[in-house]
Amino acid sequence: MTEDLLTFLLVCLSTAFVCTAIKEDEDARLALGTLRLLGVMVGGILGFAVLVQVVTLVAAHA
Amino acid sequence: MNDGPTVATPSEDSVPLVDPAEALRARGKSPELAGLLAWLVPGVGHLYAGALVKGAGGVVLVLGLFLWGLYLSGGEAVWLDQERGHQYAFLAQIGAGAPALLGLAYSHEKLPGAEPVYVHLTEKERAAPPYAAGHPDRDAGLLFTMIAGLLNMLLVHDALSGVPGAYARRLEERRRRERLDALRTQLEAERAASSEAGATGEGEAS
After folding, report:
1. Cβ-based contacts of B53 with chain A (< 8 Å)
2. Which of B38, B113, B105 is nearest to B77 (CA)?
3. Which pLDDT tens digit goes with each residue over B26-37?
4. Phi-psi map region of B116: left, alpha, beta (phi>0 left; psi -120 to 50 alpha)
5. CA-to-CA distance for A34 and A55, rounded, in angstroms?
6. d(CA B56, CA A21)
7. Cβ–Cβ < 8 Å for B89, A31
8. How is residue B15 annotated by DSSP?
9. What span, in angstroms and rounded, lies between the C-alpha atoms of A17 and A9?
10. Other C-beta atoms within 10 Å of B136: how many?
11. Which of B47, B52, B68 should be substituted to probe chain A, the one whose Cβ sees the most A Cβ atoms within 10 Å?
12. CB–CB of B43/B159 below 8 Å?
């Protein structure tokens, strides 16, 4: 479980870093942009997962 | 006449907009070599070009992701053999350069002194569907090496372009400012012309 979580974070962080690195050159903006994109990715994926769980739960009890 | 705040920012204007590849050449470094190094080992091209934070990030994150994928798959994520792997995945993995080639050599028993795990499997284990018979993380390892390879292709392109960073955005901002300035000048000229024409008309009428 911990390994899966770390792997998930590593994939998201690598993607966020590369996608930000190609359009920023100042270190501070690169770090902030990476963190912002990481937040969007992690939040979006987790949000979508929660949504799927809720819809599945509602559908199972309907 | 509009005397409102101007769009231009002195700090942006003071930065000379030189093509990033040309700027890299002016520093005695080759964008082509940077691209080659970036492909060979993720992040190294950027380190060569002087982008230390990007380079370090590339080494730690992209190379780290590729190596993590290799670890998860027991070193057998890179294959050109359809029976054991997915040869089309190699098209993505090869973006990671030397680590992908080393992984390929390892999987195909071409790496001196290293034997892949499957060499020690029984005939029955070998005959089983590769991903079901192997450890369950093989799929994940395959996927992560592919993602790392694809991400590194972006870094290679970035290094080949001379590590442009925010160059495109600055260029666009400067062009927008120039367009605005041109429009403002044109508007002022039209206003001046119309007020002049109005003054002439009043003079003739009186």
Report:
1. 27, 30
2. B105
3. 889 999 999 999
4. beta
5. 31
6. 11
7. no
8. S
9. 12
10. 9
11. B68
12. no
| Pairwise CA distance, residues B167 & B163, whole Å | 9
Return the residue of A nearest to B141 by Cα.
A7
ipTM: 0.85
State the number of CA atoms in the 13 A half-sphere of B144 facing the CB: 31
Q: What is the pTM of this model?
A: 0.78
Instruction: Parse chain B into domains and list their residue ranges.
Output: 21-123+132-164
**Apex B152 CA angle, B150 and B155, nearest 5:** 125
Shortest Cα distance from A51 to chain B (angstroms)? 24
Helix then strand then coil, in percent of chain A rounded to 5, is: 90, 0, 10
Q: Rounded to an integer, what distance in angstroms lies between the CA atom of residue B21 and that of residue B64?
A: 28
| Interface membership of A9 toward B (CB under 8 Å) | no
* pLDDT digit string, tens, across residues B153-192: 999 999 999 998 888 888 888 899 999 999 999 999 999 9
